[in-house]
Design goal:
disordered N terminus; 8 helices; 16-stranded antiparallel beta barrel; mainly beta; 18 strands
């Protein structure tokens, strides 16, 4: 980690010597972050090419049913630095980005619920501090094409459904049948990667593809950020259409999560969503099948692979700016030979400003249907374990936004057959999410 941080800190100290580019509209740090504008220094740094921010998320959850009943809390701390290298080093159309995660707390799903797909998007197997992003991106041809290289997670750009992002269940981010494969680069694992992206001139069409280390980090040292090659590669590609983004050249082309400029904030706050995409993924190294044996009686092997399609669209507006109703759907399938899940559906609705008196609140309802893989069911039957044919998750949540930097989000989930067993008790998850932008 020191290897990544030291050059950034040294360059930060030299920022005052840089010549400021034409001033842009900086984020309103006084309203958007708890620590404010640092006496104007934060805006000064932003104009000089540096965007620094942090965010804390806490999930407090009680699970009843499943393996057993229990409760716990978990935390996720984000530390992010974006460097506009055109302003800092006169390196045109280049961006560097560092994003560090610190995850602590209980393992509610692992200890209590026992669901294949989890219950909280910030639960991790092992408490750790890790580098999630550490990459350099170079843009070409007026930002229509870009190359990114470094530590990178695929869930930053691929299979993303913006209108489902408020939901806490992990599968509204990464599809469940991809998340439980043997090592995708998703939260909280970034992998050494090369990603290429193309945008049409009017910003309504895009295509992107990435090749990543097949197994991020080192599974034998789960608390460390390492690059250990030799596990094959992971390939993914996506093509999409975003008609409502027509002509919005101010949209960032890098997968960063820093506080947006005021222009972009207003666009995201008051604009609708529209996205239609198709994607596919594959591991280059074969893994053992769950049920099929070869001629020698040994487990067969195959290449894990899958595909997905997704759509989201703002359906109609409500009375007042920034208040609307959006719908989303995503279908994901995989070969199902090496994982318990073969295919899944995500369907839901998002209502921004459900009450006229609370225009910045968000109400969301989501449903997940996951079909268990036939090979997994056959393997379990051979061992005398009866399985269900599918599992379902329903989540209802209301995000109460008290300021731009603080929100409380009660949530309720109902999970049928959480571990795939036909005898598994339905799990009910009740909790609250707390978000604070520092």
């Amino acid at each position: 980690m020191r290897t990544f941080l030291a050059p950034l800190l040294i360059a930060l100290c030299l920022t005052s010597l840089a010549t400021f580019a034409e001033e842009e509209e900086a984020p309103d740090f006084a309203d958007a972050a708890l620590s404010g504008n640092w006496g104007g220094q934060r805006s000064t740094l932003w104009q000089a090419g540096w965007a620094l921010d942090a965010a804390l998320r806490v999930d407090a959850i009680h699970s009843r049913g499943g393996q057993k009943s229990g409760a716990g809390a978990m935390t996720n701390l984000d530390l992010r630095v974006k460097a506009d290298l055109a302003k800092i080093l006169d390196w045109n159309d280049a961006t560097a980005y560092l994003h560090i995660l610190d995850n602590r707390g209980a393992a509610v799903n692992a200890d209590y619920t026992g669901s294949f797909m989890g219950v909280s998007s910030i639960e991790v197997p092992v408490p750790a501090t890790r580098i999630y992003h550490a990459w350099l991106q170079q843009n070409f041809f007026n930002d229509q094409f870009s190359l990114l290289a470094g530590i990178y997670p695929i869930d930053a750009e691929f299979f993303v459904i913006e209108s489902a992002g408020v939901l806490a269940h992990p599968t509204f981010g990464t599809p469940g049948n991809l998340a439980i494969t043997h090592g995708p680069a998703i939260f909280n694992n970034g992998a050494l990667a090369l990603r290429a992206k193309w945008l049409s001139k009017d910003r309504t069409l895009y295509g992107m593809a990435a090749i990543l280390d097949g197994v991020p980090n080192d599974p034998e040292r789960p608390k460390q950020t390492t690059v250990k090659l030799g596990d094959g590669a992971f390939l993914i590609g996506e093509f999409g259409w975003t008609p409502l983004e027509y002509g919005h050249s101010f949209e960032p082309v890098e997968p960063v999560e820093n506080l947006p400029s005021e222009m972009l904030y207003r666009h995201e706050r008051y604009g609708g969503v529209s996205k239609y995409a198709i994607g596919a993924w594959r591991y280059t190294s074969p893994v053992a099948d769950q049920f099929n044996n070869d001629a020698d009686g040994q487990p067969g092997s195959s290449h894990s692979q899958g595909a997905y399609v997704l759509a989201e669209r703002t359906l109609f507006g409500l009375d007042g700016p920034g208040r609307d109703v959006s719908a989303f759907a995503r279908y994901s399938l995989s070969d199902g030979r090496s994982t318990p899940l073969e295919r899944s559906w995500n369907i839901g609705l998002r209502v921004r400003g459900p009450l006229a008196s609370r225009p910045e609140d968000v109400l969301a309802l989501g449903w997940v249907y996951a079909r268990l893989a036939p090979d997994y069911r056959a393997a379990q039957t051979a061992e005398g374990n009866a399985t269900a044919s599918s599992k379902n998750v329903v989540e209802l949540t209301w995000r109460a936004q008290f300021s731009r930097y603080f929100a409380i989000q009660p949530l309720l989930q109902s999970i049928t057959h959480p571990g795939g067993s036909a005898a598994a008790a339905r799990a009910t998850v009740i909790g609250a999410r707390f978000d604070l932008v520092l």
